[in-house]
Amino acid sequence: MRTWITLTEAARQLGVQAQTIYAYVSRGNIAVMPDPADPRKSLYRAEDVAVLCRKKQVGRKRAALAAGTIFGAEPCIHSAITTFSKGRAYYRGRDSIRLSQTSTLEDVAAILWNARTPISFDMDDTPLQWEERGRQCAFMSLAALAANGHSTHGRTDRALHTEAGRLVALVSQAFGAQCNDKVRFTHERLALGWGQDSEGTDLIRRALVLVADHELTSSAFAARITASTGASLPGCLLTGLAAFSGPLHGDASGRVRAVFDHVERVGAESVVAHHLQSAIPIPGFNHHLYPDGDPRAQALLERLNPPEELASFIEKVTRLTGLQPNIDVALAVLAAQLKLPRDASFALFATARSVGLLAHSMEQLKVGKVIRPRGRYTGPVLENAESAPPKGDRNGVPDAATVDRNRVFKTILR
C-alpha cells in the first residue's frame, strides 16, 4: 500500500472537494508533505485518509441505526425496569399479572424504583393549582413545581424516592383522591374520593398495579430525555405525562368511553354495524405487543361485571373481528361499572403510570449522559458556502490577518 497519495486520490476516496481536504489538513487530521516529483504540489498520508473513510462509514451506519430505532420497535436504551416474556410484562423480573392479585401501587413502586425500604406516597401541603379536580389540575400543579424544582444531580436515592412518592400522591389528589386517618394507600384514597365500597376499592388497586409501567413507551422515553439533562423530578414527570396524554397513548381510553356512550344511546348492534360497514377501526381492540390478547385487560375484565349492553358490544366486536379488548377497554368498563367520574380511566392510568415514568427518570440519572439524537436534514438546498463572507470579514473585505492566513495555507497546500 502506498504511504502518500495525491490530492485528487484523497478527495476521491473521501468523496469530498479539495477544499475539504485542506480543512482536514488544517485541523491536523491528515498529514501533508511536498511532492518530490513536483514541489508545487503536495502529497497526503494515505493512512490518515483511510481512517477518515472508516469514520465516515461508521457515521452512516449510526445514522441509519438511529433512524430505524427511534421510529422502530427496538429502541437502543438499556433498562432493568420492565420487559416482556410470553405475552406478559415483568416488573424487574416480577410477573405484573401475579402482582396485581395482592400488591398495592406502593409495593410496585418499591420494585420499580429498586428501593431498599418500603415506599409511601405521603401527601404534603403543596397547594393544587386548579379549583376543579382533573387532568388540568394535575398538569398545572406539576408545572408549578417544575418551574422551581431542584435538579436531580447530587441527591441520594432515598431523597429522590421521597420526592417521587409525593409527586404520585399529588397526581392522585389532583384526580380526586382523598385522605383520612383510616386510608394509607393510593387505591384507598381514590376509592374514598370516588365514593367506592370495598369491592370497588380492590378493583381500583388491581388496575393501578396492572398499568404502572409498560417498558420503553413514548412517554417513558420523553421522561428519560428530560431526566438525562438533570432536570427536576416534577419536570421529568410532567414531560412524561404530556406525552402520555395523547389519544394514541394514555388517553386512548377516552376514545373508548366515547364509543361506550354511543353504545348506550343506540345499542351495541347498531354501533358495531356502523363501524364494520364504514371500515372504521373500533378503538380499544388489539394491541401490537399482544397478538393473542392483552393480559392486563384479561386480568381486569375477568373481575368485572359490565353493564349488559357494554358486555354485548365487547362480545360482538371480538366475535366479528377476531380482535381482543385491550387495557383501554378494561379501564373504560371499570369506570362505567363503578360509575366513576368521566375522566376516571385516564386518572387511573396517569396516576399509576407516574410510578413507571419516575422509575425511568431515576434510572436514566445513573447513565450520566444527555440523550441527544441527531437529525437527518431534508430541507431546502443550502446556500453556496463560497458566497458567504470569509471568517474575520464584517463588511465584505477580509481583514489583514485573514489575508495573511489564507496566503500561508495556499503556499503549504498547493
From TrEMBL:
Keywords: Acyltransferase, Transferase. This is citrate synthase (unknown stereospecificity). SUPFAM superfamilies: Citrate synthase (SSF48256). It comes from Pandoraea eparura. Belongs to the citrate synthase family. The gene is citZ_2. Residues 391-400 have a biased composition (Basic and acidic residues). The keyword Transmembrane does not apply. Residues 380-400 are annotated as: Disordered. Pathway: Carbohydrate metabolism; tricarboxylic acid cycle; isocitrate from oxaloacetate: step 1/2. Gene3D superfamilies: Citrate Synthase, domain 1 (1.10.580.10), Cytochrome P450-Terp, domain 2 (1.10.230.10). GO terms for cellular component: cytosol. Signal peptide: none annotated. GO terms for molecular function: citrate synthase activity. It comes from the Bacteria. GO terms for biological process: carbohydrate metabolic process; tricarboxylic acid cycle. Its EC number is 2.3.3.16.
